[in-house]
Description:
By secondary structure, the chain is an alpha/beta fold. Helix content is 52%, strand content 10%. A seven-stranded parallel β-sheet has the order 3-2-1-4-5-6-11, with helices on both faces. The longest helix has 29 residues.
Amino acid sequence: MPRPALIVTGASGFVGRHLLEDLKDEYRIFAIARRSQRECGAPVHPNIAWMQVDIGDIDGLARTFREIASAGGARVLLHLAAYYDYAGEHRPEYRRTNVEGTKNVLELARSLDLERFVFASSVAACEFPRREGPITEATPPDGRHIYAWSKREGERLVLEQRDSVPTCIVRFGAVYSDWCEYPPLYVFLNTWLGGSLRARILAGRGRSAIPYIHIRDVVAFLRRLLLRRELLKPGEVLIASTTGCTSHRTLFELATRSYTGSARRPVPCPVPLCGAGMVFMSALGKLRGRMPFERLWMYHYIDRRMEVDNSQTRARLDWSPSPRHQMERRLPFLIERFKSEPVEWHARNAAVMRKDIARPDLAILKALVTEENQIIGSLVARVSEEAAGGRLPSYGAMEDSELVWLVRLLHRLLLTSVQTSNRMLLVNYLEVTGGSRFKAGFSVDEVCLFLQAMNDAVVAALRRRVDLKRLEREVFDRITVPIELAMEEVRGQYERLEERGATMSGDDVEAGENGRTARESIESTIWNCLVQRS
């Protein structure tokens, strides 16, 4: 019985990577992300098809969803992809990724006949504290900062589609791990456990508080949601968080006790003085060209408590966070990591805090799509020229329509290899079809010259684009390297075929082997191409 299939957007993120690691043996996962697996450290596994695309690029995302459909589709889509930084500025990425990106994913998901579309929101989408009490599943997403607005818009889009796509909304608390990996907490701990004058200062009375949830509990929550998804109402809101909240003062006392053996006495800083200090630090940061983590928008939340009551979620999913993963019990483990493995600690947290919006691979992908017809025309003309000179006789003997079809197919394979970061895709195709080319009389020199001409046409088209002027190395890595690997595969393949006389080609294998239908065989082949990595 085939494994159930999932789509996970934001697969390169903190939650996405841990979720893939946990589910990879039980599900086939279409992992959508802007970063490559190698770059983000996501698991590589036969059940994970990594699909590198920006959800804000509707054309690229549409191609990705067509590939997913051709490989059998999926039952559930977990939409984890989102943009967030702590500057508090109204950056265009909030609309492009969190709103337009969500709209794109929702629209394309309608064609997949999903059993559930899960939208990752945040308890930070809600204003706090609230007169009526803690934040619950019924609390409206009425927060005032830009991130809250973007999540409110995302929730609105999800609710609008609930009649055509079975949706649900999950509002997460602050997710952390034993390595911390939650930027505000990382900054607090570095300050409190350091030797600066600010080490003992707490903003206000230290009553600022939010709900935390350990990454292991997040994974357990999502696993439980997958199992009980059929019980949820369309558009239902769930909260993945601990109950209540943990204050800065509590964190300070626990952290300093774990670090030094005794809790330090904090120095409260009056709220107005905090505001003046933040203004000064902001001005100094602008002069230095390096802004502090503390931004002026944070002043509004000093000594405010984000209380949460998710009892309804616990009852609906029959789930609750593990007591041993409560922040108050887990913080000593974080401090031990801080003390014993400082290099790894800072490296992991620096990676979480870094925001890299520019993606050269996605720029190359977009250019390949835009220049497709020009590239195909250029390569067909080059083939005709070489055939007239006697260097590509077998390709020259092909019907014009057949040659254009072949060139377009190889271009699409190259495009997909960039999209999925799978440099072996061309190699896989040539390996499967090599026997039939050999038997048809194509020489090894012909095939390699054809591939070289393909590289020349693609690279020439990309070099003419102003937006790719500084990406020569990336173009070489994503275009030339896969084609050179394909050429080497052809040489090795011809050597093997000549030795054994080409008694059988890849095309001689029947699609219906092992009792599978032709559709199942096609889906399996596409899946295998997607998951194979260089």
